[in-house]
Design a protein that fits this description.
The protein has 325 residues and is mostly helical. The chain has helices spanning 2-21, 25-51, 57-83, 89-92, 98-126, 129-135, 140-159, 168-184, 192-215, 225-244, 250-284, 295-317. It has two domains: 21-51; 57-322, no CATH class.
Length: 325
């Protein structure tokens, strides 16, 4: 594609040169100067596209995407509620055996416990100036170290076998949740009232999406794994880019909007997918299998979705969705 563009540009320049040679000397300099000025202006405009001041377009597109996603979710809930699908999770839950119900209850108990540990850890770190100074560092080594710690602790939790009671897996899960609280602690600067609003909004979003997933057919959102993985890569790249580019430029504002609004939509879709995946695993995992059902591993997916939704809602409420300094 780039080679074709260069060849086309060479052809245009060659044709322009031939046209200039056919003109008289007086007009030739004037024409050549005007065309050179146009080329310079065109090149400047391409260079300045990225660095020009940010407008409200990127943020307005993000808000429109959020509104469209909300309307889609509400319409889906109404549709599945009115049509009363006999294969929905809510319909089959009435005939679940007791062990399936216990699996779902335990999974969501670990989900709520992980959020509680994260909140307590974030509050404790916020009250310690030394710890807050450590987790609030904004540098490349700090970002890489945070990513390594999060991925490493997550792998550790998933690698340990699950057994009821207090053992190594539960301790690793608690440590992972506390580590996530350390990563979230800088949000406490936004203030308690704003974070409470963000928590209530997050609870509403998670509750509504969980209701949609339960009312929908059992495999309705199970086929979204591929598109969600692609979207995760896009949002991750946008988040990394927005960490180095100021949102006062057009490119920085676009990346930041993709990271915030696009991430909010993405993790909302992930919540639909993970909720139905939990229900499917609770139903289909053998009751007396060699490997027991693991509620901790299954809870981490919706825990991560909820935490990402909360972070983005809090930052948008704090003014991060309209940074146009």
């Amino acid at each position: 594609m780039l080679s074709a563009s260069r060849l086309a540009l060479s052809a245009v320049c060659r044709n322009s040169q031939n046209a200039l040679l056919r003109t008289n000397p007086c007009a030739r300099n004037f024409t050549q100067r005007s065309r050179l000025e146009k080329i310079v202006e065109r090149r400047r405009s391409l260079k300045e596209v990225v660095a020009k001041p940010a407008g409200s377009t990127a943020f307005e597109i993000g808000k429109g995407a959020i509104a469209g996603g909300s309307l889609f979710g509400l319409g889906a809930l109404c549709y599945y509620g009115l049509t009363f699908e006999p294969t929905s999770v809510s319909t089959r839950a009435a005939i679940w055996p007791e062990y399936v119900k216990e699996r779902v209850r335990t999974t969501y108990a670990y989900f709520g416990g992980g959020l509680a540990i994260t909140a307590a850890s974030a509050a404790a770190i916020f009250r310690s100036p030394a710890a807050m100074n450590l987790v609030a560092r904004n540098s490349i080594p700090a970002m890489i170290g945070s990513i390594v710690l999060i991925i490493g602790s997550n792998i550790l939790v998933h690698s340990l076998p699950y057994e009821p009671g207090l053992n190594g897996k539960q301790l690793a899960w608690a440590g992972h949740s506390a580590l996530m609280g350390a990563m979230v602690a800088p949000l406490c600067i936004l203030g308690g009232p704003l974070l409470m609003r963000a928590a209530w909004y997050t609870a509403g979003v998670v509750g509504g999406l969980s209701a949609v997933a339960c009312c929908a057919p059992s495999d309705k959102f199970m086929n979204m794994g591929g598109p969600l993985a692609v979207g995760l890569g896009v949002v991750f790249a946008s988040s990394v880019g927005s960490a180095f580019l100021p949102p006062t430029t057009a490119l920085g504002a676009g990346l930041y909007s993709m990271s915030m609004y696009g991430g909010l939509l993405l993790f909302s879709a992930f919540l639909l997918y993970d909720t139905q995946k939990i229900m499917r695993r609770a139903e289909t995992h053998p009751q007396y299998g060699v490997v027991p059902y693991d509620p901790i591993n299954n809870s981490i997916s919706i825990y991560a979705d909820t935490l990402n939704i909360f972070i983005r809602i809090a930052m948008l409420l704090g003014g991060g969705g309209s940074r146009k300094k």
